[in-house]
Amino acid sequence: MKLSFCCLILILLGVIGGASQGQCSSAITRFQFRNPRHVAYQVQDERSSLRPNSSPSEWLVAWPEDGSTNYVELGRRVVLQLKSAPDLGKLLKARSLRPLRAITPTLFILEADDIWTALAESQLLALLPEVLASHPVIRQAAALHGAYSYTPNDQFFSTQWYLEHRNAKGAQTGVDLNVRAAWPYTQGRGVTLAVADVGVELTHPDLERRLMGGPSFNFNNPVASAAPGGSGSTWAHGTEVAGLAVAEANNGIGMAGVAPQAQLASWVIFTTNQHLVSDEQLMEMYQFSSNTVSIQNHSWGKSGLNQRGPSLLEKIGIANAISLGREGRGVVMIRSAGNDRGLGANAGDDGYPSDPRAIGVGAVRFDGRVTTYSEPGACLLVAAPSGDTGFSNTFFGLFTTDLVGTRGANPVSYFPPYQSLSDYVFDALGFSGTSASAPLISGVAALILSANTNLTYRDVQQILIHSSRHFDFADPDLTTNGAGFLVSHNQGFGVPDAGWAVALARTWPNRPAMTNITVVSTHQAAIPDDGLHLWLSGGGVPQGLNSVPTLSGTGPHPDLPTLSLPLVDVGLATNSIPIDLRGKAALIMRGVNNYSEKIAFAGQAGAAFAVIYNNTTGSSNGCPGGDELCLMAGTDFTPIPAVFIGNTNGDAIRMLIQTNTEARAQLRLNSTNYIFAITNTLICEHVGVRVMTDHPLRGDIRITLLSPQGTRSVLQAYNADTSPGPVDWTYYSTHHFYESSAGNWTVSFSDEFAGSVGSVHYVALTIEGVPIVDTDGDGLDDGWEMAHFGTLAFGPRDDPDGDGYSNAREQIMGTDPKVRDVPFALDLSRWNRNLARLSWSGVTNQNYEVWAGTNVTKLLLLTNVPGNFPVTEWFTTYPRPARQFFQVRAKP
Q: What is the pTM of this model?
């Protein structure tokens, strides 16, 4: 890479404090002023709804009637400009205004005793012929133009690790949304977000201004308030959700939401008995105010293992919101993935988050690993932080808004200066679940739409994909798809970086219209019963051990046959295994330590897979001993495939391999495969598979989808659902985004437990995407490749210009793959009172030198910094002892 540098003189950034709080249940009053043209404002009238012993606000929120979505704040001083020098005393006679200062002979600042007097008098003066301008003083919002927002003054912002997870030196110490990189450009202004839930606390000091003017509605009781219908933790749910998304920032209290200037609407969709309203009312909810509400947050869904989704009426409402909402650009719907991971549930069995028009959101804990409850699924698009158990109090639950006082989930009263903590939940009382991760993504979506209002719902989905990152690289499920994007069934494409998302949104080209391909097979085929076996081969292997029934663990699965390898007895594997198991498999006896430790020790020793056999005693509260096959729970993150076999077979194999050096072991899955040859070329988006079977036990069935590029989506895994089926269900996968549609797609069905048998009757493959001409099947349009390279030799993962953006990314972003699209420029932003943040566009695996000094011609090398894509940063003390110049050099 060519050496680049930039010098920058330190600039101090200030913070503009938040305005005072208003009321959300008050009326709207219209005023018209002159400035110098007539301008009208809609003003929130708080006077009739002031709480006892409270004072009127010093500033009032007003919305100009000029088409602007940005509000202003009006004060009790008045600007008056006249055509000629006046007799001011005569003009103000009998008026409730007094002169405060003269700016020019014809321009004055007047003052009233309160804001409402100032509004009324300004409006009357504006009608006089000698008046050029008459209006209250105006306080408008302004964005700081640094690349990183200063720390907000909210009292407990430091506890919101999910927004910024850094130590005192600025180094990132865990997963976060990096919101302060987005806030200099937008904080969500102009976007309305609806929380469809049990209701939002309308008078919460961190939410009431956000609710002003929002289209709140109670779908359970249209004449009632959109506030929660009761007290306690259950009725606090909607308020907790709302705070994470849009809580007021820089008001000196509480917390900050991801999009603290977005408008909020409270939609009550639960009855007083905590049941969902009817599907007719839900239909109305989805399409309600769809040209005003840009984002809907749904932190609810089905529970349990059965397959269930929206009703016919709900589907109509969703379709209308997508096709007609936001003037045809589509309402952005955010859905929580579900919290039943411990039961073996999968988000793909819930028709709400798996809908390709929605954004399914999983939950990750503070270190980036998926939480213990967040349901996996090929349908998940992204994930966001949430609380989890088993860690320090700091990470039990997220800090967010609660019902005011002791009425909500936090029943504790606190002493000054922390008495306001009763209005929030945190630590052990904090908010957790995918219900908490979803509104964080809703907030990011609000930032995205605020940065670019012309984006469609598909654009928002894809910006989230491009801006997401993974933190848990030890997750064996994490894979790179055919277009070069990291994706997993636990987190989708990862956790979005809000700063990166907003940067992409500002220049994002709308994606072309989407089409789809559907191919159908009605060929009936039996699903082989008890399909996963351990196969032993070689001289001297008894016939009874040639094929041994197994039950797979919940981690890596042998969808493809493993190699035939020697099997080594490693006993109980309670500690590190001192044997070199490379090119071998491990035979392990159940007992003493848990399954995941045993498999991990085998993997660390180099084993390709592990076979764990049952003991004779079993356990009193778990899997019995003997020949019972048991699911090895807790093995989601083991590094290698592992299966469980019975005690009799395990003992026989152990005895065999003591003397037989020729025996070889292999894991092999017998399945029924449907192969669909696709000749149309699309850049893939969502891929759906509709399935009809007559199997009497759905939980026995494993269903996967393999793309022409070799990416495998697990649509259904072995689980405990005893219902028949899948009778008629459509699974969706996000894992094939930006792959080419051309080639053979394989849908595989296997039965992983003996006893129940059935057949597949119908399979339909639907691929959504954008049509391209792609003769080499790499997902890059031939015309795009020839225009930029003059050849089809480059692939989707290549990065010819070395800017960190692959060809697949650059094609979607509409950028030139041969030119570095982000300039190599420095930014210096104040991070806190002690540190400043120096940042620049960076590339992973690139090293950078940081130089500094008071004389630009004699800079000294301070440090070397490893590159990080898309932004590399370095922290330095603030303020520095003298004026400083900084220079960064990219080293080859």
A: 0.85
